[in-house]
Write a structure and sequence with these properties.
Order of helices and strands: EHHEEEEEHEH
Helix content: 10-25%
Number of strands: 7
Number of helices: 4
Oligomer: single chain
Largest sheet: 5 strands, antiparallel
Strand order of the largest sheet: 3-2-5-6-7
Shape: rod-shaped
Length: about 130
């Protein structure tokens, strides 16, 4: 049910558009300062949004920018949720093949720990029996 003057709580709207899985997570997102309404940081989950507002939501791995097109009445399917907003988010960065492996470390002869062969030769030289 829409509130008077065509406004709705921001946590409810974020939940309706499936930005987060639960309304509690939406409240934590807003209270944590991860949501901006028209470029102004919002820290109150009871803040009202209206049609035409632009929301910037900072999620753990991405930034979403939504323009409110319609206020929801209930949480519906993903296709119904997509009708409530216009996605203004920048396209995701292209994925690279991953981090490049570091070059193999090269140790100079005689530097570092001895190899098993070198340990056996040392033990034989000292008169100990190799294990």
């Amino acid at each position: 049910m829409n509130t008077p003057a065509g406004k709705q709580r921001i946590d409810k709207w974020l939940w309706f558009v499936r930005c987060v899985k639960t309304r509690t997570l939406a409240q934590k997102l807003v209270n944590g300062g991860h949501v901006k309404i028209n470029k102004e940081r919002c820290s109150d989950c009871a803040h009202k949004v209206k049609v035409g507002d632009v929301l910037t939501v900072t999620l753990p791995r991405q930034i979403k920018i939504y323009r409110v097109v319609e206020l929801g009445e209930k949480r519906g399917s993903a296709t119904q949720a997509a009708e409530l907003y216009e996605d203004l988010s920048p396209p995701p960065l292209p994925k690279s093949d991953g981090p490049r492996p570091l070059p193999q470390a090269v140790r100079e002869k005689g530097a570092g720990r001895p190899t098993k062969k070198e340990r056996r030769q040392t033990e034989t030289l000292l008169g100990k029996e190799p294990l």
